[in-house]
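ok trying again, last paste got cut off:
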Amino acid sequence: MECEFAEEPPLLEELGINPNRIFEKSLAVLNPFHSNGHFDINLLYETDLAGPAALCIILGTCLLLTGGKANFGYVYGLVIVSCIAMYILLTLMTAEGILPFGSVASVLGYCLLPVVLLSFLGVISSLYSSLGFMCAVLAVMWSSLSASKLFASMSGDAQQRLLIAYPCALLYGRLPPDVSQVHQPILVCTAHIHWDPEFCDVKLIQTMMLSNELRSILEEASHSFRPGHKPDTNNIQLLLCGDFNSLPDSGVIEFLTSGRVPADHKDFKSLAYKSCLQKISGCDKPNEFTHSFKLASAYSEDIMPFTNYTFDFKGIIDYIFYSKQSMTPLGLLGPLATEWLRENKVVGCPHPHVPSGK
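nice, full thing came through this time. structure:
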């Protein structure tokens, strides 16, 4: 029995996996400026997919740890489509005849190595910075140059290297996906602020309390997406809707749109709120209160002259705010036509044709 098993080949060899060849291919990828004589050209024609499969799994795992979402389907789907597209492109460009599809897929897969290293770096540290952007650009260029070098060696025409590098850059530029854009969470909030015009200080304080609570919710949600990491609320977009019972020139709207309001704002009515409000404000400056949301109103006064139309008041007191850094309104539902209001002699709502005042 022992002699029978002794004649069996090693498991990796039986599976067609050669660690030495995987290591040699990885070294060829790590140096995109090597000459053809520095590696075995036969490496490129081997249909070794063990290394690429492992890199895809590692990439998907890093994305899972980074963004808290499973992106394996995205990675596998994009890699398969890219392999087919690159195979067709190289077949049309090569002067050496048709290249094996497995070889094309193997080269593309091994050249994922710099992108996988970038994703691993993203697990350790956030890439949402200038340094992270530079690392991402470097990884994409590294992968693209390595792939174009190997494909140019296979096609036998080194002059096509830069031409091949362009579609490679398009591929590796989408790997890994921006975790803030894949299945991006959004927080939708509705609110109803105090109505009495005499209590503008109450309205402003309620709005500040609302922003503080929203910040807590976003930090808690961000922590659940990336356990063990510092909460990054920029990955969760905010859509804030509500009846704020405040005109566009009020302290409430100034606070929401500009992100700050001075401690001596007239809406505070010179009352001693400063010491209390500093506890819920995220600002270290003693003379102003701030929030971290970058908000913009979905419509302006020239588009929507009123959201409340009653007999004794007509104006904007209802709003829709969105995260202006990552969201753009594509369309708006406009107001009732003023001509229609005049023709039907509507001087205020509720009205038989318009049952609500808003």
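cool. The two ends are 87 Å apart (CA to CA). The longest strand covers residues 186-192.
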